[in-house]
């Protein structure tokens, strides 16, 4: 019996998975029951969660800033002269935007299956190094076909990051703690939009250096930054509460047990399913809640990425210079950051999701209707003001939807799929 427990302790432990909590030697069979669980009051609990926050959230936020920069900077490159240099038509540019999402959508599930089988830090590092290299190479493409190839490969290599990072967060926090953390992580998308405009404004000044256009340097430098950061993940990104060296043994035990209790059924029991089984795949593919979430996510992505790729061009067409158009995107995205965090904190505090999904979507709907209704070349001030409603109304509901689904789907294999 002792040998069996030791063997189980040596296996990789999936963070937050009830069955793996037992396999880690930290479940009931290892003697960690409620009676010997470390006891902490609310103040101490918050202190421990802050330790996790400070270690996990800044790192994931930086990673997502880089991911969103690398997929969205093509809009900045267009304003900086990419279409002219590559002789792209409007249709070709739109195709280059679209091909990213075909492999991106198809490979998310296989990626999360791999995530469940190996260390999260290793898999995320591999993805980052891969898409950073692709992004760097995108800076030297010479024609439309080269751009299509790199955009497709970017979709392949980035496909697993967002679901992997989202899933990783759900394995560290209880149900009504996770949306606030997800909002901080996802606000990186808004930060990336703001940062992208600022970076593009600065990098565009490198036009002509080494015989390369400014738009090429946007791709090259941002790709190289991704590679540099990705190299450190194997050692710096914590995989699970069970292996978190920055926590004391008592703190690890406390986090593990509160996750186990939070995952329990109404009868106080915990699922003990282990390993991948085909029935989890069938269960995921036959669950109507997942398809509803897919529809919401699909609609949200159309709005989000359509805005990301179009905002610099819309502002440029209002009569501003290319440099000023890049800068004027910054305050718009900062509104998205504030809105995402604000609505997520309210949702966790009130322990409900739907009002904070429907409400922001209503704001975004009014903004889209307004943008379609006004003759924007004649009303640049109003057009620019309405642009603020899009990230402010589109970003928060996505996090609410992800939290909603994550709170209501178990076991973790099904959640990962």
UniProtKB/TrEMBL annotation:
- Cellular localisation: Membrane
Q: Signal peptide position in this chain?
A: none
A molecular function annotated in GO for this UniProt entry is: transmembrane transporter activity
Task: Please tell me whether the keyword tRNA processing is annotated for this protein.
Answer: no
Which positions fall inside the Major facilitator superfamily (MFS) profile domain?
56-417
Membrane-related topology note: Multi-pass membrane protein
Q: Where is this region: Disordered?
A: 17-38
Recorded GO cellular component terms are:
membrane
Basic and acidic residues biased stretches:
17-32
By what name is this protein known? Major facilitator superfamily (MFS) profile domain-containing protein
Protein species of origin? Knufia peltigerae
């Amino acid at each position: 019996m002792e040998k069996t427990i030791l063997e189980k302790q040596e296996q990789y432990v999936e963070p937050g998975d009830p069955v793996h909590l037992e396999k880690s030697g930290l479940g009931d069979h290892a003697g960690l029951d409620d009676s010997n669980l470390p006891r902490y009051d609310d103040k101490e609990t918050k202190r421990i969660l802050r330790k996790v926050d400070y270690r996990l959230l800044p790192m994931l936020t930086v990673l997502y800033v880089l991911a969103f920069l690398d997929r969205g900077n093509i809009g900045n490159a267009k304003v900086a002269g990419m279409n002219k240099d590559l002789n792209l038509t409007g249709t070709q540019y739109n195709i280059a935007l679209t091909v990213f999402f075909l492999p991106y959508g198809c490979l998310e599930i296989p990626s999360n299956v791999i995530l469940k089988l190996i260390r999260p830090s290793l898999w995320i590092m591999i993805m980052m190094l891969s898409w950073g290299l692709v992004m760097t190479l995108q800076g030297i493409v010479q024609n439309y076909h080269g751009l299509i190839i790199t955009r497709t490969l970017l979709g392949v290599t980035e496909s697993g990051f967002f679901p992997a990072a989202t899933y990783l967060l759900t394995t560290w926090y209880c149900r009504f703690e996770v949306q606030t953390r997800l909002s901080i992580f996802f606000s990186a998308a808004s930060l990336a939009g703001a940062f992208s405009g600022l970076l593009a404004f600065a990098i565009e000044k490198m036009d002509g250096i080494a015989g390369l256009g400014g738009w090429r340097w946007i791709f090259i430098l941002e790709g190289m930054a991704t590679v540099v950061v990705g190299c450190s993940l194997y050692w710096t990104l914590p995989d699970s509460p069970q292996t978190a060296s920055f926590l004391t043994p008592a703190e690890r035990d406390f986090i593990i047990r509160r996750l186990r209790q939070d995952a329990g059924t109404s009868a106080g029991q915990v699922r003990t399913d282990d390993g991948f089984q085909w029935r989890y795949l069938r269960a995921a593919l036959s669950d109507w809640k997942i398809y509803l979430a897919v529809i919401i996510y699909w609609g949200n992505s159309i709005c989000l990425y359509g805005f990301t790729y179009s905002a610099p061009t819309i502002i440029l067409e209002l009569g501003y210079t290319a440099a000023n158009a890049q800068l004027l995107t910054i305050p718009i995205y900062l509104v998205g950051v504030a809105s995402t965090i604000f609505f997520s904190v309210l949702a966790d505090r009130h322990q409900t999701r739907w009002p904070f999904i429907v409400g922001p979507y209503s704001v975004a709907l009014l903004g889209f209707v307004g943008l379609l209704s006004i003759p924007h070349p004649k009303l640049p001030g109003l057009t620019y003001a309405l642009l603020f409603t899009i990230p402010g109304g589109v970003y928060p509901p996505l996090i609410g939807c992800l939290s909603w689904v994550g709170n209501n789907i178990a076991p973790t294999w099904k959640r990962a799929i």
